[in-house]
């Protein structure tokens, strides 16, 4: 971390001396760096001191570290479950951990939470972005101050040392579609819901669903001419209910529905039952919240990962970087599903586990969250 701050100070002085006004926030070059091309913005986090994890090793004892987790909406059941994992990590390691988030899923409010934590001088930020683009400047500011930045559900976040994922979005989206297709007899019209079109992983899941349907289930059809998504829930069960009800009324031949935000399917299922329809629903969420609809048969399958583990994983990776430990291909985080991480480099460096869960009426009582 000392090296990183020294580097930043030198670069700032050089900029003042030589008036390097042409340097941009995303395409900065130095005489010691390999010249970057403009082929891809992802080149920004594949080299250079700002993205060299060795520069983030802390000089402090771990008892003095503070790792902050920032969620999309700290009141949502999904993130309450995440906080359990965050707190477990703190209890096991003796490291100070905190979890904060806006009272609702608002990108501007999340930026404010992040900026406040930066000003408090935390050692690491672990963020689940509402809109990755909206927080780029704040995360870059954090990294320039020597703060470790880790993200989750943000495979296109540029200003992060690592994005952590439970699985590949392509495999997960395909599995959601396979479950829906089975329920629908591989035929008929269906709809998709995401929280926001700016939610990176939600759109990746949705696109992967559509790709799988086009490839494997030609007798199925996405409504609205294949527009993705069919609706946005805005991370609200009430909104998902209203949007689903509108779609169900305007598309009386609808046979299936997917939702990839944890707030989607409860609203969709409520609308389906209220209208007395036989529409198959598959999506992402927490077992306890979905249980009544799973038991009634309205929701047949829950596809998910455990947010408790995701919170723990982000904190673990951040702590390893602060301790100067190596993180990358094959890293074992000591958690089931994250025993041999896959490193994928794209817009950023993604650490990917094998931690997907499938819950149905047959096993829902095995899960209590």
TrEMBL record:
<feature type="compositionally biased region" description="Basic and acidic residues">
    <location>
        <begin position="33"/>
        <end position="46"/>
    </location>
</feature>
<feature type="signal peptide">
    <location>
        <begin position="1"/>
        <end position="21"/>
    </location>
</feature>
<dbReference type="InterPro" id="IPR025997">
    <property type="entry name" value="SBP_2_dom"/>
</dbReference>
<comment type="similarity">
    <text>Belongs to the bacterial solute-binding protein 2 family.</text>
</comment>
<dbReference type="GO" id="GO:0030246">
    <property type="term" value="F:carbohydrate binding"/>
</dbReference>
<dbReference type="InterPro" id="IPR050555">
    <property type="entry name" value="Bact_Solute-Bind_Prot2"/>
</dbReference>
<feature type="domain" description="Periplasmic binding protein">
    <location>
        <begin position="67"/>
        <end position="326"/>
    </location>
</feature>
<feature type="region of interest" description="Disordered">
    <location>
        <begin position="27"/>
        <end position="46"/>
    </location>
</feature>
<dbReference type="Pfam" id="PF13407">
    <property type="entry name" value="Peripla_BP_4"/>
</dbReference>
<dbReference type="GO" id="GO:0030288">
    <property type="term" value="C:outer membrane-bounded periplasmic space"/>
</dbReference>
<dbReference type="InterPro" id="IPR028082">
    <property type="entry name" value="Peripla_BP_I"/>
</dbReference>
<keyword id="KW-0732">Signal</keyword>
<protein>
    <submittedName>
        <fullName>Monosaccharide ABC transporter substrate-binding protein, CUT2 family</fullName>
    </submittedName>
</protein>
């Amino acid at each position: 971390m000392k090296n990183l701050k020294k580097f930043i100070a030198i670069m700032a002085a050089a900029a003042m001396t030589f008036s390097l006004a042409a340097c941009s926030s995303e395409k900065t070059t130095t005489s010691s760096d390999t010249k970057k091309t403009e082929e891809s913005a992802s080149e920004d986090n594949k080299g250079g001191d700002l993205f060299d994890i060795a520069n983030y090793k802390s000089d402090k004892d771990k008892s003095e570290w503070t790792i902050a987790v920032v969620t999309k909406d700290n009141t949502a059941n999904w993130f309450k479950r995440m906080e359990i994992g965050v707190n477990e990590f703190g209890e096991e390691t003796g490291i100070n951990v905190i979890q904060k988030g806006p009272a609702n899923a608002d990108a501007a409010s999340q930026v404010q939470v992040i900026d406040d934590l930066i000003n408090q001088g935390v050692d690491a930020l672990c963020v689940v972005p509402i809109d990755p683009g909206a927080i780029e400047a704040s995360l870059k500011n954090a990294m320039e101050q020597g703060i470790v930045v880790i993200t989750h559900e943000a495979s296109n976040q540029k200003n992060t040392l690592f994005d952590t994922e439970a699985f590949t979005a392509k495999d997960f989206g395909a599995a959601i579609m396979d479950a829906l297709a089975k329920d629908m007899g591989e035929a008929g019209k269906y709809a998709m819901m995401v929280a926001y079109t700016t939610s990176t992983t939600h759109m990746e899941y949705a696109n992967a669903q559509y790709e799988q349907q086009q490839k494997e289930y030609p007798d199925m059809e996405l409504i609205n001419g294949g527009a993705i998504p069919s609706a946005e829930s805005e991370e609200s069960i009430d909104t998902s209910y209203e949007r689903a009800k509108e779609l169900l009324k305007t598309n009386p031949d609808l046979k299936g529905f997917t939702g990839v935000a944890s707030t989607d399917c409860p609203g969709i299922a409520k609308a389906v039952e209220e209208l007395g329809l036989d529409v198959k629903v598959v999506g992402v969420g927490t077992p306890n919240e979905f249980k009544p609809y799973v038991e009634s048969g309205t929701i047949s399958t829950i596809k998910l990962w455990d947010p408790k583990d995701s919170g723990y994983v982000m904190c673990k990776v951040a702590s390893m970087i602060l301790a100067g430990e190596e993180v990358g291909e094959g890293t074992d985080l000591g958690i089931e599903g994250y025993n041999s991480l896959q490193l994928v480099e794209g817009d950023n460096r993604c650490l990917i586990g094998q931690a997907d869960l499938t819950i149905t009426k047959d096993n829902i009582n095995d899960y209590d969250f």
